[in-house]
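Annex B. Sample input.
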Amino acid sequence: MSNHISYAVANLRPFICFSCVAGSKAYGLETSTSDDDYKGVYLARLEDVLTGRAPKVVQDDKHDVQYTELGEFLHQLQLNNSGALELWACMGRRQQLYCAGWFSRFFAGRRPLSKLCAKTYIGNARSQLKRICSTHEKATTPPPEFKTLACFARVLNAGESVPLDEWLACKGMSMTDVTAKPVQQGVWALYRQANPAGLFGRDGNNVTCPLIRDESLFLAYMQVDSAAFHAHSLARAQYREWKEKRNETRLRTVDELPADEGNYDTKHMMHVLRLLHTAREIATEGRIHVLRTHDKELLLDIRQGRVPLSEAYQHAQQEIIAVEQLFNESTLPDTPQLGDWEYDLARLRIQRHHEHANH
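Annex B, continued. Sample output.
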């Protein structure tokens, strides 16, 4: 073997120990536009593990093909990571494309499913629901048009707080007729004095403070809510980034429903419900059904945009409550039963290293 190799998908074949169909086609939830996704496990060379050159995950540019290094895969199983558990559950099932004999023997007798799944699956579902709602909000209620810092400025006048633009209009002045002197955090004293750059500068993002002349007339005090301005600017920036990167095909409008019930990421919501249904099966049956059968119709209805957001969201919340209770009553062990996997893995790496060295 050469001293250095590139752990790219194209070069990974000699190191692959398990591979399977992944994504919607593994669940039986694919549509005519579904991609071909593949996942698996690879065993890096001993010397690359020891020198830290072996990547934990190898994937292609589109993330359609992904292989996890065996050590990282076992670590994820120990944490009851849902993605790792699904991959493990595909061994010996219809999704499997290849499995080395030594790989299946290595996992014989190891039981990764435990009550820890309640934390990982429900935590994942809650996080995904939050993302779905955030995306829905951006799609249906975009932030207001961009405002400059001046829009967050108010003048203290006769015991009242008046928007700066209104106050200037009443005085017959513009932004170039006044200048400011800082008094305290967020408060400025306004003076009548020519200010060619404008009260908030040419970019409109900062209060300008040129030297105040002795003859300049004090007018009033101005308060500027900089925190609200920065929050507004951040929301606008996040919205622009989301709009540029969003996948239009992932936002379906549910027919004949107002925007607040449709126009959400239906594929994402489908997988949240699939995740929760899988967690229910882990708690009650002690196994993972990767291929969806009894709930397939419901999941596809959600994916195709035939279920309002409120209905799908309520179903998910009810499942979270039910699954939490089922795990409390479950007979599963508290933690994964993987044996002394770190020691076993070390022995395996040394054994495989010697086998390759002798060829």
